[in-house]
C-alpha cells in the first residue's frame, strides 16, 4: 500500500455506518445489514498488512442497540465475517429516532 493513503480510523468507520443507516432509512428499510469486511474494504486498507479490522469490529459492536443483532460472528469476535443487523430507525439517548 502506498504510504500516502490514510487508513480508516474509528471516526471513519462510525461515519460510514451512520451514512448507511440514513441511506437505508430513506429507502424505507426496517434494518441495515453491515458486514465488517465489506465496510472496511469500502473505506480502504482492507485486505492489507496494516488493516484496521479489530477497530472496525469494535466500532460496529459499540454502535449496537438492544434491538440489533449479530448475524455472523467470527470465532475470535473480530474479523471480516462479522455481520450486524441494525434496526432502522435508530433510537437516540433522548428517545428520538434517526
Fold and architecture overview:
The protein has 98 residues and is an alpha+beta fold. The protein has one domain (10-87). The protein is built from 3 helices and 3 strands. The protein has helices at residues 10-26, 36-43, 53-62; strands spanning 31-35, 69-72, 83-87. It has a 3-stranded antiparallel beta sheet. Helix 1 (10-26) crosses helix 3 (53-62) and helix 2 crosses helix 3. It starts with 9 loop residues before the first helix and ends in an 11-residue tail after the last strand. The mean pLDDT is 91.
Features:
single chain, alpha+beta, 3 helices
Q: Major beta sheet, specifics? A: 3 strands, antiparallel
Query: Which residue ranges are poorly predicted, with pLDDT under 50 across at least 5 consecutive positions?
Result: none
Note the quaternary state here: single chain
What is the N-to-C order of secondary-structure elements (H for helix, E for strand)? Answer: HEHHEE
Structural class: alpha+beta
Tell me, rounded to a whole number, the average pLDDT.
Answer: 91
Number of domains: 1
| Total of DSSP H or I helical runs spanning 4+ residues | 3
Q: How many E strands?
A: 3
Shape: globular
User: What is the distance, rounded to the nearest whole angstrom, between the alpha carbons of the first and last residues?
Assistant: 37 Å
Rg is 14 Å
State the strand order across the main sheet. 1-3-2
Kindly estimate the percentage of residues that lie in beta strands according to DSSP.
5-15%
Bin the helical content: 25-40%
